[in-house]
Specification:
Blueprint: H1 15-18, E1 59-61, E2 68-75, E3 94-100, H2 113-118, H3 123-145, H4 170-182, E4 190-194, H5 196-203, E5 228-231, E6 239-241, E7 244-248, E8 252-255, E9 260-262
Parallel strand pairs: 1-9, 4-5
Antiparallel strand pairs: 2-3, 4-8, 6-7
């Protein structure tokens, strides 16, 4: 203050100090002095597709050993109206089998020895839990849209709509119910299943023109055509129909108790400490 000829109103800071570029953003200019607290208790997990099929009534057969064959009736006898003293024509039932054989789905994570020693979260337990979740999601995805071969055959076969896809309407929702009813399959755990994009579209679509406030997808426990409706983004939204490439979604309706998932084994976690032992993983 004496040197500058000015009275101090507080703490005087020399100009040469103000010229020093010490910042947290630059490691060598102060950043190395700032500690980072890792809040492992508030770990943010990855957002995933919802697992909905077990709650919708899908049947899971566990403890299977050999290949499975489920007998199924495909034809019935025929009734005939006959004249007096006439005899009906002989007819018989027909059967086939629904076969099931095991497929394998796996996931693999490589963990370094140093990470196991230094991580502030229980990384081994975390990886095990993550592997279990992704395998569960893979099973659900195959149940919905599995294409056969190395994976199971899923529900999706054909997609209703226009030649090039079509925005869903109240008429489409009714048509799905009608198709199932015509096949005499409208019994059991009937429900709709779709993805979040379709739900959003149906919430903004009126059942009939001019009926403001009467959307196709309503609120409540039976929001769609009087039936339960579940949403998971495991239902694909990247399907192709005609010239609409990779932008179409699916809507499923049916008796989900008719969906059978066979399990020949449970989750088999194998720890291999040898494969990359020379590199410490």
């Amino acid at each position: 203050a004496k040197r500058n000829g000015k009275a101090s109103q507080g703490l005087m800071v020399p100009y040469d100090v103000l010229k020093r570029d010490l910042t947290v953003g630059t490691a060598t200019a102060g950043g190395h002095t700032v500690a980072t607290d890792l809040l492992s208790g508030d770990f943010i997990e990855l957002l995933r597709n919802a697992i909905m099929l077990p709650g919708m009534g899908a049947r899971v057969l566990t403890g299977l050993v050999g290949n499975i064959a489920i007998p199924r009736q495909t034809g019935a006898a025929t009734a005939y109206w006959v004249a007096e003293s006439g005899a009906p024509t002989e007819s018989q039932q027909a059967f086939n089998q629904l076969t099931m054989s095991p497929k394998t789905v796996g996931a693999y994570t490589d963990i370094s020895r140093k990470l196991l020693l230094q991580s502030s979260i229980d990384v081994e337990s975390f990886v095990q839990g993550d592997l279990a979740r992704v395998l569960g999601l893979a099973i659900q995805s195959a149940a919905i849209q599995g294409g056969g071969s190395n994976e199971p055959t899923g529900i999706l076969g054909t997609v209703a709509g226009g030649t090039n896809g079509l925005a869903p309407t109240w008429a489409h929702i009714i048509e799905l119910e009608t198709d199932v009813s015509v096949a005499n399959a409208d019994i059991g755990s009937l429900a709709y299943l779709t993805n979040a994009k379709v739900r959003g579209k149906l919430k903004g679509t009126e059942k009939f023109s001019g009926t403001n406030g009467n959307p196709v997808w309503a609120d409540g426990n039976t929001p769609l055509n009087g039936y339960a409706a579940a949403v998971t983004n495991a239902v694909p939204s990247n399907l192709t129909k005609g010239s609409s490439s990779g932008v179409c979604s699916a809507i499923i309706f049916g008796n989900f108790a008719d969906l059978v998932i066979g399990m020949w084994g449970g989750l088999d976690l194998t720890v291999d400490p040898y494969s990359n032992s020379t590199s410490g993983t």
